[in-house]
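One such given next:

>
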Amino acid sequence: MKFLKNIVLILIASLVANELSAQANLLNAKNPTQIGKKSERQLMADNDGPLPYGYVDDRDILWSKVVWEYIDLNERINIPLYYPTEANQISTDRRSLFDTLLNGIKSGKIKEVYFDDYFTQKVTLSDIEKKLVRIDTSDVGITILNRNPNANIDEYIDRTNLTSHKIVGFEIKGVWYFDKRLGELKYRLLGIAPMAPDIQTEGRGGNPNEKLAIFWIFYPDARNVLHNAKIFNPKNSAYPISFDHILNARRFNAIITREENIYGNRKIADYIRGNSLFQVLEAEKIKDDIRNKELDMWNY
């Protein structure tokens, strides 16, 4: 009897989740403006949020290691983090990961934004906007300004914007740790940064393969925004997946670029230079060492 009761409860929870996760009011809308607007009943029932992290006491951590990883958006498994790149050609409830983070910063919902991956120096919205645009003035415009500093030269100014389609990847920082209370190896995401070529030097003889972090976000501060932003689910469009779930569940492919070490946390590319194959092998070696740590903990 108890087993049947549990089955019924699971089915009810699944139906409610599907109802709330689908595009709100899609089938009941009398005009397009009503699509996406939840009814009062839905608003009362929709009290979900990101699954809170459990408290981890420092004394429960037997071993830990901080690692930096790179998520390449050219890989097929990482495509859900990249699309859609054209925000004006799709509904407002679907955005790329970069646009979601940037909109969260602009709206003030994400406040913990930094220049560096150690979260020491905060960055303002104006600082970010300077990295997202390049202004080029033609020679004719410069000549006109030299003659008349108050002249209007808008037609001689070319503005290049760094938009979502130019984001090539994300760098993430996280910590692997062995929790002796739970007896298992766990992972906690600490920071995330969108990576793109430097727009200020693009097309000006700079290194085309160089990727720079636009900003670093302390990940726990962005969880509410990422929970409310959904990724298209190709297997069932009525049940989208949140960015927060994708990232915390590690449903992506990433390669380790460095680990915390005695040499100032140097990157793999700093001590294995000019050989991409050996760099990948070193990253896999670090990954295997972390994976085997859990097995080592159970050896007597």
Q: What stands out?
A: Residues 55-133+163-297 form one domain. The first strand starts at residue 61 and ends at 72. Residues 276-297 form the longest helix (22 residues). The mean pLDDT is 83.
